[in-house]
Every structure is written in C-alpha cells, then in structure tokens.
Amino acid sequence: MTGTTKRALRVIDHVANSGGGIKYVLRLLDNLRESWQVQLCAQPVALERYRQAARGMPLDFRRTWPLNLAPVLADRSPRFAQWLARRSNSHRAWSYQVRAPNLDDGGVSFFPWLHRHDLRNFQGHGLGVFHDAIFFRMPELIGADALAMETDNLHAWFEKLDMIVVTSRHTTRRLLDIAGQGWASKIAVIPVADFDGTANLPDPGPASTRRFGRYLVMPAVASVHKNHRVLLQAMRRSVGQWNLVLTGDGTLLNPGGPLSRLVAESGIADRVFGLGHIKKELVARLIADAEALVMPTLGEGGGSFPVCEAIVAGTPVIASNLDVIEEQLERMRARATLFEPTSVDALVQALDRLAENPDSFHHLAREQVDKLRLRTWEEVARDFAKLFETLFPGGRG
C-alpha cells in the first residue's frame, strides 16, 4: 500500500464462527493492520465473540446490525432459535442480510466468512472468503432449508463481489462444481498459514496434561463431519490402550448430548476426557504431549489447523486421506499416516501400527520438523494485500 492515508477495510462478519473462523480472521487482520484501517463490523453477539478472542488486539470494533433481526435473536437465544426452526417458512430466515455500505468513504468491504451472509442488497467493491463446501456433500449437517439458503447466497456472492478467495485447490474444484465453471475467473486461491503462533503463548507445562496419562488427542468441534464416531469405535478395537482427550466446542460431554451418547455407546467412556473449548496454549501443550493427534475428519476447507500444529510440534499425525489434507501436507513438505475416514478398520490398522511401534512414529515425526516449509500469516496477509491492490488500485475502493 502507498500513500499516507490508509484505506478503510470494512470487515463484515455476523457469524463469528467459534471453530477455525475467528482464529483465521484475527490472525489475518493482525497482519493487515499495517496496510489498512481495519473496521471489524458485526452484530452484537458475534462482536462480543471477537472481543473475547482478540484479547486486547487494537481493532476498531463496530456494532453493525444486519437488515433482518431473526438470525441475531437466534444467535442470542436458543429458545428463539428453536421457535424459528419450527415457524419459519423461508430458508432465508437464517441468513444475515447485509446492509449496503456507505459508498462515500472509498473503503473496501471484506467478508472473511461468507457463509450465512445474504449480499442481495450489497453495493460497491468487496471481496469474500469461501471456506468449506462440505455441507453441499453432507446436507444433513445444516438441513435442507439451510442448504437452500446457502445455495441462494452463493449465486449472490459471485454476482456482487469482485473476487472470492478460497483456501485450497480442493475447495476451488468443489465450489466450481456447485456454482458452475463460468465463475472460475472470480476465484483466487490463498492458502492459510501452517501454524497459529502458539509458540509465543505461555506454556502451561507438562503438569497440565499429566492427569490424562498416555493419550491421543483430537481438537475438533463436536460436529458430524469431524467424525468422532469412527475414532471412538476404532479405539475400542485397537490393541493400543491410550486415553482420548477431546477439545473444542461441544466436547464437554454433558449428559444427553450427541457426543456424550457416542462416547457411552463406544464402551470406552472411562478412557475419554472431554474438555470443551479451552485456551490455545493448553491445546498446544496437549498436542505436544500426545502419543498422536488423530483427525478423522470427513471434510475441510483449507486443511486442518490441529494437523499443522501437531506436525510443527513433532507429534505423530494420523489423519483422513482427503485430497485437502494431502494438499496441506504437500505444501508443508510433511508426512503423516493417512487412512480412509469412513472405515473403522482402516483407522484400527493405523492405531495398531502406532501401538506396536511407537518409537518409529515419534522418530519420523520429530525428524521432519527441521525440514518443513511453513507458510506464515505474514505471507497470507501479503497475498491478500496484493490481491486487494490488484482489484482496488489507486488508494480508493
């Protein structure tokens, strides 16, 4: 960027996805602040999630209301969400209808999490990030109405925005399969960084993980596509007698919850620790001290942050053989043990190999650390800055 006055980057995210979404946005904005006057605009519930996650990061937080209040109220109140699910006759009820921005300030609108944003009323210049197409293959994740909503939104994104960024070649292929090959010129690939900067956080030390004994770790939100069921069934059958530590939203194992029922049915409930959402530094320590990180995911957008963190930490990784995971490993110049995620037998075989020869797994994991090619958030931000400058040259949006 040139000139003495920074352009306004109007970052709009009414969802504030508590999984990888907030992490992605904050790391990216932290590196874009040097070149842009960043305004983080979100509805109140989402804005509060960002404030808590930002931990004092100097961002210009701006409370911004969408044109419709139903999804905001659903975010705030589970009871209202249940009522809306029963009473709504429109699949658009769950989309945040974005207001037309002020076109006089020359700013650029940036949608770092396009999902659930309805851009029919949007005007001006803008860029968005499409993260994950898995629900187009697994409609049960969001339901028929939500899938229809996302399909409608998808067409508006391509029509209204100057460019859509995806985080992998894998997602590009999936997105064009859905939207049509004619939109290929409006897609740019900018991969995510390969680690999350947890090395700069305070280390809670080995005592923080000692109570778990010898364990496998799976940091992932409790969602069907993360595939906890296959891991639980495979652990029951494997000769390895590790414990299992689960972290992420929905993993607290509250009585009656879907994941709690899976754990109870697995027959290894006495070996499973569900921690819920915990601090990043403890997640990093859990990964570093684990016998292995296991990620049986059925789909990802740009790869898996936990897989990256485990590889950087020198912890063995056993992960799904998805093309997006393979693309991620290729980019990092890393190796992992891959398996077919729909097959319990395949994961049992991988776990048994780990149990029978753990020294080999750990030696290979530690040996590759110094040979990795790690993409940084600074590189990601530079790629975005170049794209912004190409799309919106001359100091104004």
- Total number of domains: 2
Computed over alpha carbons, the radius of gyration is 21 Å
CATH H-level name of the largest domain... which superfamily? Glycogen Phosphorylase B
**Computed structural class:** alpha/beta
Supply the CATH architecture of the largest domain.
Answer: 3-Layer(aba) Sandwich
Main sheet?
7 strands, parallel
- Briefly note the CATH topology name of the largest domain: Rossmann fold
Overall pLDDT metric: 89
- Helix proportion of residues, in percent? 40-55%
Instruction: State the order of secondary-structure elements, H for helix, E for strand.
Output: EHEHEHHEEEEHHEHEEHEHEHEHEHEHHH
Shape designation: globular
**Got a strand count?**
15
Structure keywords:
397 residues; alpha/beta; Rossmann fold; seven-stranded parallel β-sheet; globular
Provide a quick synopsis of the model:
With 397 residues, the protein is an alpha/beta fold. It is built from 15 helices and 15 strands.
